[in-house]
Design goal:
about 325 residues, alpha/beta, binds nicotinamide-adenine-dinucleotide, Rossmann fold, single chain, 3-stranded mixed beta sheet, 8-stranded mixed beta sheet
Length: about 325
C-alpha cells in the first residue's frame, strides 16, 4: 500500500547546481528500462529532468547536475505533487504496472497504478499549466486481430487489464487535449528491446540468459508466431519527437517489420555467436498468432524512421548482458 510519507527529493549530484528553467521534463518511471534511455537523451541536450520512480536513477556523471530524483510511489498524491514542479514544460509518463500477467492477477491494483495515477498527473499538469504530456501506451489496446495489420484506425478492444488500463489512459489524454488544449500524445509501442532490460522476463532477455549460460530455450508451438521488435533507441527517438513537436493523438511505434519467433532465435544466434538449441513445447492458450503493425502515421506525424537493424540491435543487448555478467559476483546468475 502507498504511504503518505513526505517524498524524498534529491539532486543526484551532491554538489551540483540544478538549473532553474522552464524547459524541465518530468519522466515518471525514469529509472526503468525505457526511462533511463529517455532521461539520458534529454540530459544530453542540456534539458533539466525530474525522475520520479520508486528506484533511484542510474545517471551518467556528466549529467548528474541536470537530474533530480523524486523517490516514492506515484499512487501517493504527495509524491505526484513533489514530482511536478511549477517550471515543468512537459511530462513523459512511463511508470506503470507493465506485466500483463501481474495485471491479470491484480486488476484493481493495475487500475489504481495505471489509470488513477495518469488522471492525477494530467490534473496536476492542467493546474500547473504544463502543456505537454506523452504516455507510454501499447498495441495491446487493440487486442487480437489475427494476421491483420494493426493501425490506429482499429477500434480499442483490449483483452487484459493491462491493455484496458492503457486504453483508458488514452481516453483520459484525449479529454484533456480536447477540453484544455494540452498536447497529449499516446505512443503505442510494440515489443521494445535494447540495453538495460536485464531485469525483464520477456523473450529477448530469456534468450540472452540462455546464450550466456549455454542452455537451450523452449519455444511454444511451432515458433511461427510473429512479433514486431523495436529498439529502445527508436522508441526514444519517437518520444523526443512527440515532446518537441507538441504532438497530440495516438500513434504506433514499432520497427514496422514482423518476424517469427524462430527468425528471432536465428537473429540472436547471429548476434551472440551462441548455438541456442531449442525445444518445442505445447502452444499456450490464447497466445496471439501475430503482431504486425503499420508505422506510417508515426512517419507522417513525428518524422519517425526506425533505424536500428535487428541483429545490430540484438548485439547491443548481448554486450549489455555480457558486461553485467562480467561484473556479477562469481556464482551469481
Ligand atoms: N518494454 C516494452 O516492451 C513495452 C512495450 C509497450 C509499452 N511499454 C510501456 O512503456 C513504459 C516503460 O516500460 P519499461 O519497459 O521501461 O518498464 P520498467 O518496468 O523497466 O520501468 C518502469 C519503471 O516505473 C517505475 N514505477 C512503476 N510504477 C511506479 C509507481 N507507482 N511509482 C513510482 N515508480 C513506479 C518502476 O520502478 C520502474 O523503474 C510502461 O508504461 C510500459 O507499459 C513497454
Amino acid at each position: 500500500m502507498p504511504t503518505s510519507n513526505t517524498p524524498s527529493v534529491t539532486d543526484v549530484a551532491q554538489h551540483s547546481t540544478v538549473r532553474s528553467s522552464t524547459d524541465r521534463v518530468v519522466v515518471t518511471g525514469g529509472s526503468g528500462f525505457v526511462g533511463r534511455a529517455v532521461v539520458r537523451s534529454f540530459a544530453e541536450r542540456g534539458t533539466p529532468v525530474t525522475v520520479v520512480d520508486h528506484r533511484p536513477p542510474r545517471i551518467d556523471p556528466d549529467h548528474a547536475g541536470l537530474v533530480t530524483h523524486v523517490a516514492g510511489d506515484l499512487v501517493d498524491p504527495a509524491v505526484r505533487d513533489a514530482a511536478v514542479p511549477e517550471d515543468t514544460a512537459g511530462i513523459i509518463h512511463l511508470a506503470a504496472i507493465t506485466s500483463v500477467l501481474r495485471s491479470v492477477d491484480n486488476p484493481v491494483e493495475t487500475y489504481t497504478a495505471n489509470v488513477e495515477v495518469t488522471q492525477g498527473l494530467l490534473e496536476l499538469a492542467r493546474r500547473r499549466s504544463v502543456g505537454r504530456f506523452v504516455l507510454a501506451s501499447t498495441n495491446a489496446v487493440v487486442g487480437d486481430i489475427g494476421h491483420g495489420t494493426i493501425s490506429e484506425a482499429l477500434p480499442l478492444r483490449p483483452l487484459t487489464p493491462y491493455g484496458s488500463t492503457k486504453a483508458a489512459c488514452e481516453m483520459l489524454l484525449s479529454g484533456y487535449a480536447g477540453a484544455y488544449g494540452m498536447a497529449t500524445s499516446a505512443l503505442r509501442f510494440t515489443n521494445i528491446y535494447g540495453p538495460g532490460m536485464g531485469h525483464k522476463d520477456s523473450f529477448i532477455p530469456r534468450l540472452m540468459r540462455a546464450a550466456l549460460s549455454g542452455e537451450g530455450v523452449e519455444v511454444y508451438g511451432d515458433g511461427a508466431q510473429s512479433r514486431d521488435f523495436v529498439h529502445v533507441d527508436d522508441v526514444v527517438q519517437a518520444i523526443v519527437a512527440a515532446f518537441d513537436k507538441q504532438h497530440s493523438g495516438n500513434v504506433i511505434i514499432g520497427s514496422g517489420r514482423s518476424i517469427s519467433v524462430l527468425e528471432l532465435i536465428d537473429a540472436v544466434r547471429a548476434a551472440t555467436g551462441e548455438p541456442l538449441p531449442i525445444t518445442h513445447v505445447p502452444a499456450k492458450n490464447g497466445e496471439m498468432p501475430a503482431v504486425i503493425v503499420d508505422v506510417d502515421k508515426a512517419r507522417a506525424e513525428l518524422d519517425y524512421t526506425p533505424t536500428v537493424e535487428l541483429t545490430d540491435g540484438l548485439h547491443t543487448v548481448w554486450q549489455d548482458f555480457r558486461a553485467a555478467a562480467a561484473l556479477a559476483p562469481a556464482g551469481a546468475t
